[in-house]
Amino acid sequence: MTGASTRRLTVALVGAGPGSTVVLDRLLANAAAIARGQPVDIHVVDPYPPGGGRVWRRDQPALLWMNSTAADVTMFTDESVVMDGPVRPGPTLCEWSDRAGAGVTPGAFPSRPLLNDYLSWCFQHIVSSAPRQVAVHVHRARAIDLTDGPRAQQSLWLDGQDIPITADAVILAQGHLPVAPAAEYQELADFADRHALTYLPPHYAADADLDVVTPGEPVIMRGMGLGFIDDMVLLTEGRGGRFTRNAGGSLTYHPSGREPVLYTGSRRGVPYHSKITYQLQGERLAGTQFITPAVTAAMYARRGSLDLRRDLWPLIAKELGRFYYHELFTAHADRVTIGWPEFLASYAQHDWGSYTLADLVEASVPKAEDRLDFDRLLDPLADRAWGDPGDLQDSLRGYIAANVARHGDPAHSADLGLFNGLLMTFGAVVDAVNSGRLTARSHAEDFSGWFRGIFSYYASGPPPQRLRELSALSAAGVVRFLGPGIEVTTDPGRPVFRARGARVTGHVEARALIESRLPAATMSRARDPLIGALYARGDISEESLADSEGRPYPLGKLRVTEPDLRLVDAAAAVHARRFALGAWVGRGFTIAGFTRPRSNAISFRIADRLARTVLSEVAGTA
Predict the structure, then answer these.
(1) DSSP single-letter state for residue 237
(2) Crossing angle, helix 602-619 and helix 18-35, to 10 degrees?
(3) Residue 518 needs a FRET pair 20 to 30 A away by CA distance; which of 152, 254, 340, 527 works?
(4) First to last CA, the chain
């Protein structure tokens, strides 16, 4: 055979973590149909072993866990995914564990090294099942530059190699990238350097050198999300402390003597909600009713650009209430006064926040603890103050115990209904974002900050065991809560960091400060040689919006076209052969986090669409 039919098509995939692995699977699944018999080479480039990549590499402490259960993680498409490409099924993490003899139960939260074993197996399994016409080449190297070559080909340069990979198309899928500290954090780092203090800016726990924190010394920790939980584990149990279980199920912590004293606070002053550990007790709702793409499109047509809090939150809240009350009414009929159809018919007629809706709920749900109260749920310490820091510790331990108990008790399964509602509603909001229906300010501040914060706080919390450990550490005096509204300042006169909570008397001083949070996506500060080279030349750009007066609202993410995810340069030119996806890419949402089986996951749909676009482009069938 000669001519175009024998030309080898070449795709380079930068990154070998979970997101890249899903894209690789979709490239292999679609190659035969789209490449039309032409041979295809796929080059996967990453200095870390494929499957886990950097973030999920095996070389990290087993004390670091996932915050997803083994039954809720899959790397393979299934019959639920609405896409044009073929399904290539495979085992969930839990199913793979059974086959591998790892003994992980469906509700367990696996360690990250164990997750890496699954991800590594997935990558190898996907490669081994490649169609005959496709060859996959793995390069354990770092991509450092990307330049245009002749005939629209791309030259991908690797560290330590003089000859680049020549590809017809390149997909950037590096996932989360290390970043230089933002200005506010750099000022604190400079202060620490001048006064020989310890400071850690936002970070991934597995990448940080926590050995710089001195045993027995106080350390201020700002943030109480998942990053805080990881740091807490490594600074306590990771330093030789241990937990024992008491008769009632609570824990007691036995210090090793090598721990620092952890003073922790955040805006809300409480940790993220415990993961829910039971199943729905009633019927499952299939989709949204009050906020859908059609609803937001119609609202946009009537009003113009929308404000998420003013225009969409009433619909979001009403939708979440529908999911919450549906589970309450169908699973716990003894705690309501009317049937679900009758309740929904009236509920649908009233606006969220109206007196008539409140009256309906009060009459239909007799106990206040069974009613959905967003103020209490999202800001549980609002309007509370403590004159004695000791009272605050007792309050927080009580709150944590109640939260863990509730999220482990099927009697409160309406909370899981709310959780499922958040997952469903998030997709409708993302559609509004990706369709450009929000104002620039609301997109940058409300969606990227406030709404994502709500989602993470309620739906992406730690395993309940971690919160039991937090309570035990507090009881042992190793963790001390600072409460909500934490404020951190410096004192040049006395070289220390100082922190206080907004509603508790007194403050603490320490020579160490840890920002216990993950770094925000910011392309301009990414510490990645490939991204740095492309950004310096203007070959890529950072996504930014502007309001009607031209005021900019930078989003920090890599700018791509929607929906085909082609890179856009600083002059707004679209590159036909360069693509990107992942947590740091795009205005709204591409691939981030792990995928639940049988959920028609958006991550699979986007990856399949991208793979088909890339293959069509390079094969000349677009």
Answers:
(1) G
(2) 50
(3) 254
(4) 24
Contact 302, 259 (CB under 8 A): no
The predicted pLDDT at position 116 comes to 97
Burial environment of residue 222 by CB neighbours within 10 A (0 to 12, 13 to 18, 19 or more): buried
- Given strand 512-515, what is the order of strands in its sheet? 198-200, 512-515, 218-222, 261-266, 479-484
Q: What is the pLDDT of residues 119-137, one digit of tens each?
A: 999 999 999 999 999 999 9
Q: How far apart are CA 358 and CA 377, in angstroms?
A: 17
Q: How confident is the model at residue 622 (pLDDT cuts 50, 70, 90)?
A: low
CA distance 63 to 239: 11
> Does 184 or 591 have the greater pLDDT score?
184
The CA distance from 296 to 369, in Å, is 32
- pLDDT category at 233 given cuts 50, 70, 90 is very high
Distance CA 385, CA 542 (A): 42
For 282-314, the DSSP string reads SPPP-S-SSS-HHHHHHHHHHHSSBPIIIIIHH
CA pair distance 351, 24, nearest whole angstrom: 46
In the block, tokens 């019959």 appear at: 79
Asked whether 349 and 378 are in contact (CB, 8 A), the reply is: no
Q: What is the pLDDT of residues 457-476, one digit of tens each?
A: 999 999 999 999 999 999 99
CA–CA separation, 282 and 272 (whole Å): 26
Q: How much is the average pLDDT of 405-419?
A: 97
The DSSP element (H or E) to which 263 belongs, if any, is: strand 261-266
> pTM above the 0.85 mark?
yes
Residue whose token pair is 């989709």: 287
Of 395-404, 425-434, 442-451, 459-468, which range is least confident?
Answer: 425-434
CA dihedral 7, 8, 11, 17 (to 10 degrees): 160
Q: What pLDDT does residue 2 have?
A: 40
Can you tell me which residue has the tokens 């259960």?
69
Place of tokens 């979709």: 26
For residue 28, give every residue at least 6 positions away whose Cβ sits within 8 Å of its Cβ, in sequence order, or none: 42, 88, 126, 129, 130, 131, 134, 136
Express each pLDDT in 551-596 by its tens digit. Answer: 999 999 999 998 899 999 999 999 999 999 998 898 655 555 688 9
What is the token pair recorded at 310?
A: 């003013």
Strand (E) positions, 280-421?
none
Would you tell me how many other CB atoms lie within 10 Å of the CB of residue 491?
Answer: 12
* Sign of the dihedral through C-alpha 454, 225, 400, 512: negative
- CB 408 within 8 Å of CB 275: no
Report H helices in 129-273.
183-194, 226-235
- Buried residues in 122-133 as b, exposed as e (16+ CB within 10 A): bbebbbeebeee
Q: How many CA atoms lie within 13 A of 51 on its CB side?
A: 20
Instruction: Identify the bridge partners of residue 486 per DSSP, sorted by sequence position.
Output: none
**Reported confidence tier of residue 211, pLDDT bands at 50, 70, 90:** very high
Q: What is the 3-state secondary structure (H, E, C) of 133-171?
A: CEEEEEECCCEEEEEECHHHCEEEEECCCCCCEEECEEE
